[in-house]
Specification:
Layout lengths: L10 E6 L1 E2 L2 E2 L7 H13 L2 E6 L6 H17 L5
Parallel strand pairs: 1-4
Antiparallel strand pairs: 2-3
């Protein structure tokens, strides 16, 4: 059985709770750590991802999603 190579523009990961030691579920995700995680994802071949959070109390989930949204809107590397 032969293995063929497939060229693609990159991977799209649909569930990323964090990467490279950065936890997107933390109560505070600092900007530099988030950018570092995004840069590492890109370096590892990921061209798009969906930052996700795990189930928790509604106020905590809302805060975490709001922070990810804020970081997304502020930095081109995330878009």
């Amino acid at each position: 059985m032969s293995i063929e190579r497939v060229n693609s523009p990159g991977y799209c990961d649909l569930q990323v709770n964090g990467y490279a030691g950065v936890d997107f579920n933390a109560d505070i995700v600092d900007e530099s750590s988030f950018i570092a995680a995004c840069e590492r994802l890109k370096a590892d071949g990921v061209t798009g991802f969906l930052g996700t959070i795990i189930s928790d109390e509604m106020p905590a989930m809302c805060r975490r999603l709001a922070r990810l949204h804020q970081l997304h809107d502020q930095h081109a590397i995330v878009r």
